[in-house]
Design brief:
The protein has a domain at about 5-135: Alpha Horseshoe (Serine Threonine Protein Phosphatase 5, Tetratricopeptide repeat), CATH 1.25.40. About 50% of the residues lie in helices and about 10% in strands. The chain has 13 helices and 3 strands, in the order ααααααααααααβββα. It has helices at about 10-20, 25-30, 45-50, 55-65, 80-85, 90-95, 110-120, 120-130, 145-150, 155-165, 170-180, 185-195, 230-240, and strands at about 200-205, 210-215, 220-230. Helix 7 (about 110-120) runs antiparallel to helix 8, helix 10 packs parallel to helix 13 and helix 11 (about 170-180) runs antiparallel to helix 13. The chain starts with 10 loop residues before the first helix and ends with a helix.
């Protein structure tokens, strides 16, 4: 013995390293025998936390150490879905490269593609489709992916779906045309009012490819929703795909 205390690592230490983004500490703890399948007090898996934190290096370390890419976190959430929802493309690619099933379903019938389309993340959409995700698999409400992309107002997502053979093109065109006739800010505000009741200030933010509406009460953002603004371009894309005009 050299007189030094043995190094001890715990699952709590692993999560501390995850939240700090400390790859060196993660490597050390895994070498000390901390399980890559560790869960925290809420049942969240280490891989899920790393995925939603957009930590591709740590995700790869956990996968290399034996973390199962499709293991549900807290009994309901998939790492691939969490990464897709956040638009974390490099994490999505790392999970897919390690065997994550592109069309795996988490709680309430959501897949990674459903999340990526709802949140308007075209790079994630393309990565999932290139890995074999079904471009026609309905979301949890039965809505075809191309219709969801048309509603979202993301031309890039629509292009990816069309390139991978997505159907329901007529329905998607109808949806895109409908949104070109609406005032987006008013529609988003109405949705927040239905979900959270009346009262408070609504703040609208705009950028080149979209807008967001936030509900503010007592100086705090209570809720928010955003939307792409590419519906007119989507109409053109779908009309061309359908041979219209």
């Amino acid at each position: 013995m050299n007189g030094q205390e043995p190094q001890i690592g715990s699952e709590r230490d692993l999560f501390t390293a995850l939240y700090a983004g400390d790859e060196d500490a993660v490597v050390r703890l895994l070498r000390l025998g901390v399980s890559p399948e560790a869960v925290d007090e809420d049942g969240q898996s280490a891989l899920y936390v790393a995925a939603v934190s957009d930590a591709p290096g740590i995700v790869r370390l956990l996968l290399s150490a034996g973390a199962a890419p499709d293991r549900l976190s807290a009994g309901s959430d998939l790492p691939l879905c969490g990464a897709a929802c956040g638009g974390h493309t490099e994490v999505v690619r790392a999970l897919l490269a390690s065997g994550a099933v592109p069309d795996a379903v988490e709680a309430f019938g959501f897949t990674a593609l459903t999340w990526a389309l709802r949140c308007g993340h075209p790079a994630v959409v393309e990565a999932l489709l290139a890995a074999g995700a079904d471009p026609d698999r309905p979301g949890p409400t039965g809505e075809p992916p191309l219709v969801a992309a048309a509603r979202r107002g993301s031309p890039a997502c629509v292009r990816s779906l069309l390139a991978h053979g997505a159907g329901s093109r007529g329905d998607a065109l109808t949806e895109a045309r409908r949104w070109t006739r609406l005032d987006l800010a008013s529609e988003l505000r109405a949705g927040l009012e239905r979900a959270h009741g009346f009262g408070g200030e609504y703040v609208t933010r705009r950028w080149a490819e979209g807008l967001a509406v936030e509900l503010v009460r007592d100086g705090n953002v209570v809720a928010g929703v955003d939307q792409g603004t590419g519906h007119a371009e989507i109409v053109t894309l779908l009309e061309e795909a359908l041979g219209i005009g």
